[in-house]
Amino acid sequence: MIPALRAELARTNFAGREVSLAEGALVVAGTCALAARTGRPADLAALTGIGGLGLLDDLLEPHQRRAGRPVSKGLRGHLSSLRRGRVTTGAAKALGIPVLALLATAAAPGPRGGPMVPLDAALMAGCANLANLLDLRPGRALKAMLPPAALLALAAGQDARSRSGAQLAVAALVPGLAALPVDLRERGMLGDAGANVLGAAVGAAATRVLPVPARFALLGGVVALTLASERVSFSAVIEGTPALRSLDRLGRLPVPDAGTPSGGER
Description:
By secondary structure, the chain is an all-alpha fold.
């Protein structure tokens, strides 16, 4: 990797350690390559677009900060920017990811049209956003996404819709497993690109494998967590809950001493 590109992809994580966004870019590439196995161009286009929007946000946000331009955070912040007529990279994601999710769900195998298409698109987009919200500590987003990806891959039926769902679950599972050691050892990070694309692939898989009641329940949970994130710090809740704290720290490097820079974004 040439020095200029390495520097562009380098970030300092919550513990003050240098990590690389190359992990996220490789996860996007791997997920999209495996998603192509579905033989459905809409799946590949949607995941490529979602990964591309995430990578754009990853790369441009630091430049915006250095230029002194305001950077919106959270769904509320992005929507507020749009109301003021300012399209940030985050706002572009907030608009683009649902549109791309709608493209993928509308073209999915099985019955076309009907009320489940927008609901499935909301689930896919919501999972993409939720994975990104969780990516604040090493391994956290991967620990949240990999188990459902594995379960969805195993639970799929034999019809065309379920098979495509299983393939999308595998498309998230394989790159995610490959990235886990790098993420936990704090040598790389998913960033918006990697987290968004993994969450989108898992969400899309859920729309094709799970029955309608389970999809409604899952969407309700995703919406509830997303709204809660506007008011509550996930990291604070996890640190204050012993079981969640133990799971969150499993496999990670030791938490830095109080004198080490900490508490920031990944």
